[in-house]
Design brief:
The longest helix is centred in the middle third of the chain and has 35 residues. It is built from 2 helices and no strands. It has one domain. The chain has 71 residues and is mainly alpha-helical.
C-alpha cells in the first residue's frame, strides 16, 4: 500500500468505492450502448442520459471522504 498519510481503513474504503464505481460504469455504458444502437436502428429518439449525475455524486462523495480523512 502507498502511504498517503490517511488511515488505512479510509484508503481501503476509497479504493473499493472507486473499483465498484468503475465496474458499474462499464456495465451501464454497455447497456446504454445497446439502447442507443436500438434507437438508431428504429430511428427513435436517443435515450436520456441519467448516469452522469450518479457518477458525479459518487466522485463528490469519494472526494469528501478523502478530504475528511486527510485533515
Amino acid at each position: 500500500m502507498v502511504d498517503l498519510s490517511i488511515p488505512s481503513g479510509a484508503q481501503k474504503a476509497i479504493a473499493m468505492t472507486l473499483l465498484i464505481l468503475a465496474v458499474f460504469t462499464a456495465l451501464v455504458s454497455w447497456v446504454r450502448w445497446g439502447l442507443v444502437e436500438r434507437s438508431m436502428r428504429r430511428r427513435e429518439p436517443m435515450p436520456p442520459i441519467g448516469f452522469g449525475t450518479l457518477m458525479v455524486l459518487g466522485l463528490i462523495g469519494i472526494s469528501a471522504v478523502l478530504i475528511i480523512a486527510w485533515v
